[in-house]
Write a structure and sequence with these properties.
- The chain is mostly beta strands.
- 11% of the residues lie in helices and 35% in strands.
- The chain contains 3 helices and 20 strands.
- The chain has a 9-stranded mixed beta sheet with strand order 1-4-16-6-14-17-18-20-19. A 5-stranded mixed beta sheet has the order 3-5-15-11-13, with no helix packed on it. It has a two-stranded antiparallel ribbon with strand order 2-12.
- A hairpin with a 7-residue loop joins strand 9 and strand 10.
- Helix 2 crosses helix 3.
- The model has no long low-confidence stretch (mean pLDDT 93).
Length: 315
């Protein structure tokens, strides 16, 4: 195992499998990755709302990468272990006309600056917001030729905005290209389910990731193994299936169906029993509702329900 470091810049703001990798590593290696904030470093502490409205929005979701993982081939699964995250003491959130879950109600542009005090922020006193930094975007190169903006997620991962992806979690992604070509960015110091105003607490973020390969494994889309309870009703150790779509109900059905498929293929549970188990114990949640027309649904099942089982055994 080797340790590497990858600077934030130059960044890229598209998925394109022809991008040259900035780093080549072996499975099992760890990489400290530096990421600018989601604006591509354009937002700064003290910036006015008027200045914010003038930023170059083609640079949104500035990503660090790609990282080439030796031996990765289409049909493999890439495991990304989030070992550590570190914010830089500041962040921002905004309201932009025409965006957000309540865009008809909140039309006036607004930029809010956060001061991040270690593990919490009191910038919106009397509220004290706990900080659980994570990357909103983690993904591999898409299967298709072309250059694609990063806003919609997909089977390759991408703009998932799943807040369980904080330190201690593991993300599993299907590989579509040689080397996988992993990129990440869009750091959040905290985020509520839905990310309803269009932002979490956007911030520059340094992360330490470890990459592993599961050869010749079938996976239809992103899968998360969490280790931290992000809300009072969540369990720290869970399997989380992530699905996106233009219809929330269809995305929720797809996430539920994928969890059933995993329980059948990995745990030996019959289809009808898996369906009943999901009905009794699955947590369906809205992870993102603002990247219209695409929304993200998470389906989580606590690992304690199936003691001793692992969907992807440790390497």
């Amino acid at each position: 195992m080797k340790e590497h470091e990858l600077s934030a810049e130059p960044t890229h703001s598209v998925w394109d499998r022809t991008l040259e990798p900035r780093l080549r590593i072996e499975p099992g290696d760890e990489v400290q990755i530096h990421c600018v904030d989601a604006s591509g470093g354009q937002v700064r502490p003290g910036m006015t709302t008027a200045e914010y409205l003038a930023i170059d929005r083609t640079r949104i979701h500035a990503l660090t990468g790609p990282v080439w993982i030796e031996g990765a081939e289409p049909g493999d699964v890439l495991e990304v272990d989030v070992l550590a995250t570190r914010h830089s003491g500041w962040g921002w959130s905004s309201i932009v006309e025409g965006l957000g879950f309540l865009k008809e109600r909140f039309r006036e542009p607004y930029l809010f600056h956060w001061q991040l005090e270690g593990e919490s922020t009191s910038s919106l006193a009397p509220a004290i917001v706990p900080l659980r930094p994570f990357l909103g975007v983690m993904g591999v190169a898409r299967a298709e030729d072309g250059s694609f903006r990063t806003r919609p997620p997909g089977p390759f991962g991408g703009n998932l905005d799943v807040r369980e992806l904080c330190a201690g979690s593991r993300l599993f992604l299907p590989v579509f290209n040689r080397g996988a070509l992993f990129s990440c960015g869009d750091g959040h110091a905290a985020q509520g389910d839905g990310e309803v105003c269009i932002n979490g607490i956007e911030c520059p973020l340094d992360v330490t990731l470890r990459f592993r390969l599961h050869k010749n494994q079938r996976l239809a889309g992103p899968l998360v193994e969490s280790s931290v309870a992000v809300s009072p009703d969540s369990h720290p150790d869970s399997w989380i299936v992530v699905e996106t779509g233009t219809d929330l109900a269809e995305a929720a059905r797809a996430a539920t169906s994928r969890m059933i498929d995993l329980l059948m293929s990995r745990c030996g549970i019959s289809d009808v029993h898996a369906y009943i188990l999901c009905s009794a114990a699955l947590r369906l949640r809205l992870s993102q509702v603002v990247n219209e027309p695409v929304h993200t649904v998470s389906a989580a099942l606590a690992k304690q329900i199936l003691p001793g089982k692992e969907l992807f055994p440790a390497l």
